[in-house]
Design brief:
CATH architecture of the largest domain: 2-Layer Sandwich
Number of strands: 20
Helix content: 25-40%
Radius of gyration: 25 Å
Low-confidence stretches: 1-7, 9-20, 23-34, 37-76, 592-596
Structural class: alpha/beta
Bound molecules: NADPH dihydro-nicotinamide-adenine-dinucleotide phosphate, the ligand O=C1O[C@H](COP(=O)(O)O)[C@@H](O)[C@H](O)[C@H]1O
CATH superfamily of the largest domain: Dihydrodipicolinate Reductase, domain 2
CATH class of the largest domain: Alpha Beta
Mean pLDDT: 85
């Protein structure tokens, strides 16, 4: 049943103070739908900013906010009372109260800081174009590239145009749309630590805002050591005077608990938490977002989601290429910081959290924090680390990690790790959560595997299959070839009674004709809309680092040598022993895995 209107609507900007967070939009039922439209009150307790404001804040004592003129933040002298605490309202809140954001009078300016870099070209500009193509960007928007490299607007457009693509299923007016999009992209060259250069950027942005209400999004697509310079300069010289200013921060968010806390403290000198959008692009992946839908909207799963029925959960990330080109960055971090502490742990938190009281960002993030805080910090004996070595196959020699010129020859940085984690709460007590992440393995795949317990006293024990081993397994394949499938034991048709393992299979490509949007599209749209659900809150980050920091320190202090594994292999055998210690077999290595 279609519940919605057919456009992503810039119209939402006209209808309401600020665009509805995505959690309030209904999924498109019609294949002609582009960006999903807004359902009010369907899922979330946060309805519109307007009603939220009226519900949570005591503004009646001030005066009718709707009669107030547009006013910069510093002139605002309204108070809100939230949970009994009185504080000044922000410019954004003010605007919402006064109903001042409308399509006609508001703009969004998106500045990609580090626009000359790899991520900007590969992901950010293409994602912005996809949103534009789908009519998901507001009517008045401008995109600025900012970096030290000297470039003209035309040169930026040429650079960006090389990486723009249209969706396979939507090519109508593609080149026309690209031209229109590129016409909205501008470039400003400047230093990252120059308030003056950011003040010049501010002037450029203002020209395009043309007196409209100004909303500004800064995407920090730069190495982390310059985050603070940029945040300081942008907030002092280029933040919005009368609308919102938001900053998307790319990972890594520090290297351990201390450095991460220092970064958070630094950011909070210039920004409040609500302005900081810490991105973990795995949270924007379709199947990761679907985790909660699967759990909380299907009666069949939620009752099974506990130690009573689940034997173990496996979160597996593998890439079939090495750190080629990123060795310099990677050597300072390693696979535990690059993948486990963020992408896999975020998936684990979503998988294991208790039911949030609503789909409101804070309710979900509260539950994620709780589950992270219920986990025991990792010990050395819970972990196996590896590093890929050179391997020759079919006459081609694949390099070792340490063959990279930017990596020290004696580097002990792990390119592979396997770990066992436990959640000390009533739901998950004793259930091993296994993580495995590696580069230069035999395949590229990310998945969650849920292995269920065996059927007690199984009647079919003597019919061919070892039913204690062939237990049900639910696989959520995040990428590639997105799928959800459930392994079951089934009777082979015929007069006899023989069982085999089969899959109940939801392969996305077969079920849905719509191309799956890139994670960055979803996350950029959310940041523009002020939807924080898929971004990492500072306390979540703190809890995540608390789990891994002691282990990382011990690995580094004791200079633990990683087990070498050949490029293109299945990783170190130590990972099997680690699983075997807990009487577990990695699901991705069983023979059935390859039948799918
Ligand atoms: N690339 C990827 O696939 C991913 C990247 N990330 C994160 O995103 C951010 C950007 O990544 P990516 O685009 O690969 O980074 P780049 O190394 O390409 O850097 C981006 C831009 O920053 C400037 N820059 C680079 N090094 C320095 C330096 N030492 N001092 C000052 N400026 C510098 C350069 O611009 P100029 O010289 O013109 O100023 C460069 O074009 C990083 O935080 C990274 O960790 C996260 C996930 C994946
Ligand atoms: O954050 C990172 O992710 C990529 C993998 O992302 P994917 O969306 O292509 O699966 C990884 O290659 C990189 O090392 C890491 O920094």
């Amino acid at each position: 049943m279609a519940l919605s209107s057919p456009k992503c609507p810039s119209s939402q900007f006209a209808l309401r103070p600020s665009p509805a967070p995505r959690s309030q939009r209904v999924a498109a039922a019609s294949s002609s739908l582009s960006c999903p439209p807004i359902p009010r009150r369907l899922f979330s307790k946060r309805v519109s900013s307007q009603s939220r404001a009226n519900r949570r804040w005591n503004v009646a004592s001030v005066h009718d906010a709707r009669t107030l003129p547009i006013s910069p933040a510093k002139e605002i002298d309204l108070k809100k009372v939230e949970n009994g605490v009185s504080s000044a309202i922000s410019a954004e809140e003010y605007r919402d109260l006064a109903g001042l954001s409308t399509r006609e009078n508001s703009t969004v300016s998106i500045t990609v800081v580090g626009a000359s870099g790899d991520l900007a070209k590969k992901k950010i500009f293409p994602a912005l174009f996809a949103l534009y193509y789908e009519d998901c960007l507001p009517e008045h928007f401008t995109i600025f590239g900012y970096a030290r490299s000297k470039m003209t607007d035309t040169e930026l457009r040429n650079m960006v145009s090389k990486t723009l693509t249209c969706r396979i299923d939507k090519r109508e007016n593609c080149s026309e749309k690209m031209e229109q999009f590129l016409g909205r992209c501008f470039y400003h060259s400047g230093q990252y630590d120059s308030e003056e250069n950011f003040a010049e950027l501010d002037k450029e942005i203002k020209k395009h805002e043309a007196g409209r209400l100004s909303n500004r999004l800064f995407y920090l697509s730069i190495p982390p050591n310059i985050f603070m310079d940029v945040v300081k300069c942008a907030s002092k010289s280029a933040s919005s005077a009368n609308g919102w200013t938001r900053v998307i921060v790319e990972k890594p968010f520090g290297q351990d608990s201390e450095s991460s806390a220092a970064l958070t403290r630094g950011l909070k000198q210039f920004l409040v938490e609500d302005q900081i959008f810490r991105i973990d692009h795995y949270l924007g992946k379709e199947l990761v977002e679907n985790l909660s839908v699967l759990r909380f909207s299907n009666l069949v799963f939620e009752p099974l989601w506990s130690r009573q029925y689940i034997r173990n959960v496996q979160l597996i990330f593998s890439e079939d290429f090495g750190t080629e080109g990123r060795g310099g960055y990677f050597d300072n971090y390693g696979i535990i910081r690059d993948i486990m502490q963020n992408h896999l742990l975020q998936m684990l938190a979503l998988f294991a959290m208790e039911t949030p009281i609503s789909l409101d960002a804070e309710d979900i993030r509260n539950e994620k924090v709780k589950v992270l805080r219920s986990m025991k910090p990792l010990q050395l004996e819970d972990v196996v680390i590896g590093q890929y070595k050179s391997h020759t196959k079919g006459g081609f020699t694949y390099p070792a990690y340490t063959d990279d010129k930017t990596v020290p020859r004696d580097s002990l940085t792990p390119t592979f790790a396997a770990a066992v984690l436990f959640i000390d709460n009533a739901r998950w007590d004793g259930v091993p959560f296994l993580m495995k992440a590696g580069k230069a393995l035999h395949t590229r795949r990310t998945e969650i595997r849920v292995q269920f317990r065996h059927v007690p006293g199984n009647l079919y024990r003597s019919f061919g299959t070892d039913l204690d081993r062939a237990t049900n397994e639910l696989v959520i394949r995040v990428q590639p070839d997105e799928a959800i499938y459930l392994k079951i034991n089934n009777k082979i048709p015929g007069l006899g009674m023989r069982l085999d393992r089969s899959n109940l299979n939801l392969l996305y490509a077969a079920r849905y004709s719509k191309e799956i949007p890139d994670a960055y599209e979803r996350l950029l749209l959310d940041a523009i809309e002020g939807e924080r659900r898929l971004f990492i809150r500072s306390d979540e980050l703190e809890a995540a680092w608390a789990l891994f920091t002691p282990l990382l320190k011990e690995l580094e202090e004791k200079r633990i040598a990683p087990e070498l594994y050949p490029y293109g292999s299945r990783g170190p055998v130590g990972a099997h022993y680690l699983a075997a210690k807990h009487k577990i077999r990695w699901g991705d290595l069983s023979s059935e895995h390859y039948k799918i």
